[in-house]
Amino acid sequence: MGVLAGPLVACGVPELPNSAPVPEPTEALRPEAQRGAVPEDARVVDYVLTARYDEDLHQIDGRARITWRNRGPAVVQSMPLHLYMNGFRAPDTAWMQQARGQHRGQKLDPEHAWGYVDVARVERVGGEGTDGEPGRTTLRWAEAEEPSLMTVWLDEPVPPGEAVELEIAFTTKLPRVFARTGFADRYVMAGQWFPKPGVLEPDGTWKAHPFTLFSEFYADFGDYDVELDLPGDLVAGATGILVSKAEEGSRQRLRYRAQMVHDFAWTAGPELVEAWGDHEGIRIRALVPRERADEAALHIEAQRATLASMEARFGPYPWSTITLVDPPDGAEGAGGMEYPTFYTTSPARPVPAPLRALGFDTRLGSFTTIHEFGHQYFQGLLASDEFAQPWLDEGLNMYANLLVYVDWYGEDSGDGPWIAMLAGHPLSIFDATRLQQSDSWSIEPIDQSAGAFSPLAGGYGPATYAKTEAVMHTLRRVVGAEAFDAAMRRYADRFRFRHPTGDDLVATLTEVLGARVVLGTTELGQPIELVLDEYFEQALETTREVDFRVHKLVNQPVLGPVGWRRDEHGTLVGGEPPPEPPAEGWRDEDLEGIVVVVRRGEFAVPVEIEVELGDDTRERVLWDGHGKYRVLRWPGKKVRWASIDPDAKLVLEARRFDNVRHAEGERPKASVSTEIGRVGEATALAIGGGLGP
């Protein structure tokens, strides 16, 4: 099986917490006392899958026994099923037309370009048969015009509360992997490889979307019993737990069981080695290429940190195991994808010691591991419709990923822990978020279906991932971490094993935080509030941007009683000339400090302004952000500098270079550290500009 006999040690790599195999759990779910209750009505569809993999043909011959329960309000007479692999069948499918044979920088192999699912027959199982076996009725079915979907017409309707059992014989052809699933030489990654029913919504309508470039997957929870027939020398990993293994000549037969999951995926390869860890009784299994075995420790360390963070914030992880896979070289297209209790990551190479000595380092090496495990919660457990509202999956996961760094490295204040060190200049996790705000940041609104995003406009990744992450962290920092974390925990607890929507999230946050969050008061004592409906409407449904600027900062003399004026009798008196500036300069008490702040972006949100006065004191003013500008005055005081959003709460604001302004003669001199900081920021911008989803 390729088990590592000794600890993995490399330069800068921690020793594995446990290099010996951790026993296979006996149950796919953790004990109820550890995982909490599982709602019975959430179990909708069960699968018994058998599959034989022919690595010469790169083909899976399969049979699926599907038991589907009608949890809807009406009789069901037909069912839509997903045939995701048909997205790779020809250049005119919806997926291929949008992707043009490319995905995350990987391209299809012209010699092994196409993949498909070929359904041979569909039968209903039930009724009286022969020899004690249940009867079988052949059903009519047809692919849709878009071949990633098919429809099965039932010979008998399924009333509410009843179930139907289907058996489907199919063959799946794998392409050379460039987009999540396929083969690379003898390595195979099988995701979305079998027919899957759509989701029947509570109102009785079916959700079954065509497979497009940006669409991921949406399915119901259930139990899986899967038997894989594979070449005997391949090391395999899959969703759930391994319940049996039998060697049959040059092949092996593996049986897996998974409970209350909404998908099943598997992988196998000849040069994968195993490493092990655990967290609070959850078994961690890492499969990595032999040449990168010393990186397994980094993956397991990150996995344990992510489990600790997410369990504390979003509730217990319900399953007894997690398997992570770093695909080998040549199979990079399989990396960075999530499946229940199983995900693929990317190499976690540490920064070489000579670069670290020069002040360059990163904590991003483990980010893929953190991100892909995060999907075990945000969409694996909180199973939102990834096609209809992809931000509920990718964006909430990104928000949670940053909190892993906060919990792992500390610093849940200021701009959080550093994520990269550039010439000794730290780039924080929230700096990194701002740097992802490319020109495509606000081209398209967040809250739309995956199919509505334009592949040419390039707005899907920036809006769904980074902007959603910034929306959530901005709100958390504005209303306070403790209150916001409590609201998110209620959302996570309420919708475990459910299909929450964006409305469910907003309603839960509003319930806990209140519809109007009072942040402070005006000079006249009027409350300054953040109205959640208004915030989310701007953030999710529009392309408005947060952008403030210190427009003007002056210290002007207070002229006082000079010139002509009328006295109490109406007579003109005075005529004094305006005062001349004193040779030694104006005293602070003879000045009026004036700061003008401008809202350049269309997104209105409350914001703080901090000033430092001539007597070294600092004052803060809260502005509701709704006007186009605000004039602030300090009679009898000199203002040295003004800063908008001094605590950097508005993660949504990317352009912060004009958020600080100094009075004439007050700008601090440049230092070596500030100049290095500017170089680091320019470098970060260059790096950030090349990142994508």
Largest sheet: 8 strands, mixed
- CATH architecture group name of the domain at 44-220: Sandwich
Query: How many angstroms separate the termini?
Result: 34 Å
Strand order of the largest sheet: 7-6-10-2-1-16-19-18
CATH topology of the domain at 44-220: Immunoglobulin-like
Strand coverage percent: 25-35%
Given this structure, which CATH class of the domain at 44-220 is correct? Answer: Mainly Beta
What's the total helix number? 12
The poorly predicted ranges are 1-17, 671-693
What do you see in this structure?
Mean pLDDT is 91; it is low at 1-17 and 671-693. By secondary structure, the chain is an alpha+beta fold. A hairpin with a 2-residue loop joins strand 11 and strand 12. The protein has twelve helices and 39 strands. 20% of the residues lie in helices and 33% in strands. It has an eight-stranded mixed beta sheet, with no helix packed on it. It has a five-stranded mixed beta sheet with strand order 21-22-23-25-24, covered by helices on one side. A four-stranded antiparallel beta sheet has the order 8-9-3-13, with no helix packed on it. It starts with 31 loop residues before the first helix and ends with a helix.
